[in-house]
Amino acid sequence: MVQLTQALAAALLATGAIAHPGGNANRDLLRRQAHLDHPERRTIQSCKRDLVESGWVREQHMRREARLHELRVAAGFAKPHELVRRDPAEAEATYGEAAACTLDPEATEGPYWVVGELIRSDLLTGEKGAVTHLDINVIDTTGCKPVTDAYVEMWGTNSTGVYTGVKARGNGDGSGSALTTNALRGLQKTGANGTATFTTLIPGHYVGRANHLHTIIHHGATLLPNNTIQGGTISHIGQFYVEQGFLGEVEATPPYNTNTQVQTKNANDFLFQMGKQGGDDPTLKISLIGKTIADGLYATIDVGVNPKAKQNPLPVNMWTSTGGQPYPNSPWTGYPDTCKYCGFGTKPPKKRAGTPLVREGLIYGEGAPLEE
């Protein structure tokens, strides 16, 4: 599998495929390849026996069925007594084989990560589109148990392919209009079953990438009085995707169908293809709540992490009480034209101990350090 992955990486690097409009894939591909080649890498599939024997797979299967039924009852598409369950033994037998059962691929934080987002479950903030109730389960693949004390960060574009909190050429009309909103961005803490729950949208598309959501997993962070987090470490940086056939149905609905940008399909997205390597599957498992996409969606995915791993992603902006503000010395500043990470062959700078994560007085906290 490693040899196949390296061949794919070499081919993609040779094409100069882009990560975002104007950007380059070199850093992203090398990062993913290094993760696939790591001798201590484990996937959720390797934990299947432990998760089944502990009862976690059965419990999560039944919880997800109940959650979908709850959403259907709330939307008027089912009665409380009409819950029909699938045989849990069948779910246990197929766990780790179907879509949305295994995910550990490291990916890029991309040029639009904004630190200082709020702890909240509902990320919509007025945005319209295919409303998705998303459950993310986080599994410690070193101990094969759910991670119960992590903060899961989530962000993605709106239905027409625009990221909030940032200003950049190629992000919508390139104006600063998106700087004043934090829609479709936020964090949630995992509960006793390792689950973090969000209400968001199926992301829209933009030039150069297939539709995707971003996630970062934080450990040991401190909750601040302003409902943000500070400190801790980051074990995982990943991206979630949508099955192409279903995505086509979503893109045919408003306001997705007003997006005039060229769409990149999963099959032509280099990071999606790399994400499928090594036995991983970064595709959401999605169910209709009602009869149509407009009635809402329920999505699930399991994320395998090594809590002791320490990734060092870098943001482009910080969310503050006045909107998105530049992050000091960010290598993404000037994206896609002049940033340090825009060119071929760039490498992340080594982080110095004690480097502040933000400037003092901004909403994320006061001088919160990046962890080594």
UniProtKB/TrEMBL annotation:
Transmembrane segments: none
Organism placement in taxonomy: Eukaryota, Fungi, Dikarya, Ascomycota, Pezizomycotina
Entry protein name: Intradiol ring-cleavage dioxygenase
Record key words, sorted: Dioxygenase, Oxidoreductase, Signal
Position of the signal peptide: 1-19
Keyword field contains Oxidoreductase: yes
One Gene Ontology MF term: iron ion binding
InterPro entries given in the database record: Intradiol_dOase_core
